[in-house]
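Lab notes, practical 5.
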Amino acid sequence: MQKSKSSRIIGRLYGAGDVVEVQVDALSGKITSITPTNEESELIILPGLVDLHTHLRQPGQENSETIATGSRAAAAGGYTCVHAMANTIPVSDTASSVEQTARIGDEVGLVEVRPIGAVTKGLNGVKMAELGAMAESNAKVKMFSDDGKCVFDPLIMRRALEYVKAFDGIIAQHSQDPRLTENAQMNEGALSSKLGLQGWPAVAEESIIARDILLAKHTGSRLHICHLSTKGAVEIVRFAKSQGINVTAEATPHHLYLSEEELAEYNPRYKVNPPLRRREDVEAVQQGVIDGTIDIIGTDHAPHALELKYCNFQDSAFGMTGLETALRVIDAVFIKTDRLTWRDVVRIMSEKPAQIVGLSSQGQELKVGNVANICVYNPNAESEIVPEEQYTKSTNSPFKHKTLPGEVVATFYRGRQTHGG
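Output from the prediction step:
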């Protein structure tokens, strides 16, 4: 934590231009000056990252993660705001439950923790949760999702879209037709047949996305597609945007970097929902990020205790950790291949996520007088991922033993240093 009243950061804003000195005041929590300097620095100064898709597991699953450990992991990854999914035990489907999540996040104080409310009570898909009450609560919930489960009933989905329109809310859908994915373990294709594992067809994702886009068009409401993973899904969203439909979409770092081949040895580390897809899908999702079809990067940080993840493959939990490696993966996939700039990274990992949920732009723009939410990154570093050395409580990183570029050397949240020396 920051001990002094002010901090001095040397580097290039947004990874471009001349080296500058940024002065941050911990007491006011703001940037007090940005001035040119003759000092040399390899560091890049970025606005704090914003994640719209984080599983913090508290309450009810503290053996996998807590708001405190997840916040530490987020800060270590350069994040200053994370949105906690509702699939806790009990489910975050009331005003009091989302207020509790926000309150604990404030007490931890490492990042802003904003709860995502459930769309349906208990995630059961039958009756709508208290969307209005959660929106009007002290937590001021803006986004609602049954993530982990699809809102499969089209009437419930339509009603939810209509309801949140009144307060400019947004429904984030986990696009998975449950009838087409019963007992599914991995992407459906030649490899799943070879391994003898129940396949997970791309159409199970694409059919729900297509349906919900039509419902969003019909209601005139806002729809967000979680963890898009297939070539067909990218094409559907691209077409929807060309028609002016109000839809946004996210991709995860693991769907941008890894493919189904990782599962050849039945390693549950690579079991995730939606599953890792074909290399053709990976490339299509990458292109979707490049051309703007996919708006943001969401980590889908899904920690699991050892006994839940590392067991018989078919019984293993779906999910991967991601907060501490997300920026480094994006660096590897897009920056090191010269397909995006650091300014683009700021857009997809800070500015656009904040815009979707209505966060103040002050924390996503580096200028004097704005809130000092800052990520300081060394693009010239490189290291092997060792999950046991990360801040998250769980070790189910899909990047174990993989070498990734970069290092988040410091994070500042409202002017206080929450990560780094």
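Observations recorded by the TA: The two ends are 9 Å apart (CA to CA). The chain has a mean pLDDT of 97.
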